[in-house]
């Protein structure tokens, strides 16, 4: 899809209506990927006020990462103790 950029400042939204990215483009015609819309703002100050969507952190993600790191440390410790040549 082709868009006409006038001010040069804008942002993109996906099909879910989430702001996915900010853009500073040269005025003129530009192609955008299917499934996205472009929304222009007046100037750079207005663009800086736009908040890009950030997916909320999964509450279990931090816990899983800690468990994974602990298991990895335990495995390395055991393999090192066994004199495994890959863990010297």
Explain what you see.
With 88 residues, this protein is an alpha+beta fold. The protein is 32% helix and 26% strand. It has helices at 44-48, 59-81, and strands at 2-5, 9-13, 19-24, 28-31, 37-40. The strands form 2 sheets. Strands 3-2-5 form a 3-stranded antiparallel β-sheet. Strands 1-4 form a two-stranded antiparallel ribbon. The mean pLDDT is 91.
Which SSEs are present, and which pair or pack?
Elements lengths: L1 E4 L3 E5 L5 E6 L3 E4 L5 E4 L3 H5 L10 H23 L7
Antiparallel strand pairs: 1-4, 2-3, 2-5
Order of helices and strands: EEEEEHH
Give the biggest sheet.
3 strands, antiparallel
| Biggest sheet: strand arrangement | 3-2-5
Helix content: 25-40%
- Can you tell me the overall shape? elongated
Number of domains: 2
Number of helices: 2
Given the helix and strand composition, which structural class is it? alpha+beta
Uncertain regions spanning at least 5 consecutive residues: none
Q: State Rg.
A: 23 Å
CA-CA gap between termini: 56 Å
The strand count comes to: 5
Proportion of beta-strand residues: 25-35%
- The average pLDDT is 91
Keywords:
two-stranded antiparallel sheet; alpha+beta; three-stranded antiparallel β-sheet; 5 strands; 2 domains; 26% strand; 88 residues
Structure summary:
This protein is of the alpha+beta class and 88 residues long. The protein is 32% helix and 26% strand.
């Amino acid at each position: 899809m082709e868009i006409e950029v006038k001010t040069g400042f804008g942002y993109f939204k996906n099909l879910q209506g989430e702001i996915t990215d900010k853009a500073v483009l040269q005025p003129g015609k530009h192609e955008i990927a299917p499934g996205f819309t472009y929304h222009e703002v007046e100037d750079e100050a207005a663009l800086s006020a736009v908040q890009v969507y950030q997916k909320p952190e999964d509450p279990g993600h931090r816990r899983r990462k800690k468990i994974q790191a602990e298991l990895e440390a335990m495995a390395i410790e055991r393999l090192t103790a066994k004199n495994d040549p890959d863990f010297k």
